[in-house]
Amino acid sequence: MNKRSSKSENELLQSGDVTPTCDNHLIHLDNVRLTQSQILPTDKAQQMAEIFGVLADPNRLRLLSALANQELCVCDLAALMKMSESAVCHQLRLLKAKRLVSYRREGRNVYYSLADSHIINLYSSLAEHLDEV
């Protein structure tokens, strides 16, 4: 666990909010059995955690937000992000490794876009969720 996430978790734990728990410790076996067959397998949970880990960086999320609207070349992304092309390429490489973005080459330019509608929906849903809060 990195220091940033552990600090954030510690702040939540120390905020004084108490998580409600059951007063009566009765296990509802029918609910447990029903849910047990639907719970996420460990290997898939690990893969999802790795993707969320890649998305846990503000610069990568800002890149996704730019690409949510249209395909952009590396030069345009660097100008938008006020970062070097090298730094943008590094972030895009991580996003590409998790299949969150795809690219195409046109002449000397490389254009990036979100990989598919699932990534667009994930980004849009989270942005909408934050707008509601």
Any overview of this molecule?
By secondary structure, the protein is mainly alpha-helical. Helix content is 60%, strand content 11%. The protein has helices at residues 3-14, 29-36, 42-54, 58-67, 74-81, 85-97, 117-132; strands spanning 72-73, 101-106, 109-114. It has a three-stranded antiparallel beta sheet with strand order 1-3-2. Helix 5 (74-81) packs across helix 6.
Q: Uncertain runs with pLDDT below 50, 5 residues or more?
A: none
- Could you tell me the number of beta strands? 3
What's the helix-strand series? HHHHEHHEEH
SS element count, helices: 7
Based on secondary structure, the structural category is mainly alpha
Mean pLDDT: 88
Give the oligomeric state of the chains in this entry, treating copies of one chain as homo and distinct chains as hetero: single chain
How does the overall form come out from the CA principal axes? Answer: elongated
Strand order of the largest sheet: 1-3-2
- Rounded radius of gyration (Å): 20 Å
Beta strand %: 5-15%
Helix fraction bin: 55-70%
Distance between the termini: 27 Å
Major sheet: size, sense and barrel closure? 3 strands, antiparallel
Keywords: DNA-binding, Transcription, Transcription regulation
InterPro entries: ArsR-like_HTH (IPR011991), HTH_ArsR_DNA-bd_dom (IPR001845), Metal_resp_trans_reg (IPR051011), WH-like_DNA-bd_sf (IPR036388), WH_DNA-bd_sf (IPR036390)
Domain HTH arsR-type: 40-133
Pfam family, one: HTH_5
